[in-house]
Design brief:
Elements (H helix, E strand, L loop, with lengths): L25 E7 L3 H12 L6 E7 L6 H8 L5 E4 L5 H10 L5 E4 L5 E2 L3 H11 L5 E3 L3 E3 L5 E4 L7 H6 L10 E4 H6 L14 H10 L5 E2 L5 E4 L5 H4 L1 H18 L4 H13 L3 H16 L9 E3 L4 E3 L10
Amino acid sequence: MAKSATVVTADPSTLRETGTPRWPRICLVTPVFNSEKYLADTIRSVLAQGYPNLDYFIVDGGSTDGTVDVIRAYEKVISGWISEPDRGMYNAINKGFARTTGEIMGWLNSGDMLHTGGLIGLAGIFRDLPEVHWVSGLPTCYSDEGTTFIFSGYRRWSRFRFLAGANRYIMQETTFWRRSLWENAGGYVDESGRCGVVSDFELWVRFFRHARLYPVHALIGGYRTHPNSMGTLRVEECHRIQQEIVDAELNRLEGARLFKFFCKLGKDMKKVRGLRYAWRLVERQLYTWPASDWPPMIFYDGQRWYLEKNAPRKMIL
């Protein structure tokens, strides 16, 4: 595999081609509530992309700190924003997507940031590879101060391994999709409260019904870790709800009796301390065993994007 990630930097002269098929429209939404400390970093990471065909909308849930003042400072260079009470982050995301257009979709929470050239890279992938409907870049994190402090290796996903417990952490900040996939999967993020803070996980489960998730060997976006992040504060609850979502999805599957038995066996073994660690060894193998339903990695050679099987030999080490 390639040894280092790709960071795509745009040629400023090409960014003047606004509205041409070369630059498909990207819609990006940021939900925010009382995040004055981090929001400006998020907005600047988006605007610094210089992407010419971007629909960027911010949805504030009625913040009581200086969040709205931060938004107003950038309102002339974003597509739009609203500030009103809502029913939580996922309700805000649905509101934002309802007010945006574009072939490529994704959201970026307040505090999270895009890497240099992330949107240019996404545009190239979806332009050059029409068979790709859903992608996730290399997972990275930022510290509370904004320093990139974790660089994790590439991952691969398949629907069945995902449901079985392998690679369940798909980082939303670096994951984008075509609008057609969004619509086929229902066209919404669950905002009922049933999914707590893991509605993105529930969305991925629905996406997997319709398309394979392609890993991208490039930097797109990163997650900011801080003491008040919901995933950090409620990690056990997240795991419990994720398993409930998986159980419901398994019940939908037809003709997969052996697979369902395998998943139930793993669930039961995790409840027994002596067997829990043995099962973890089995789960680890699911991350690395070759699978026929693994989509190929997506690489960049400096001029265009390639699927792993079609990449120039020099790109695969």
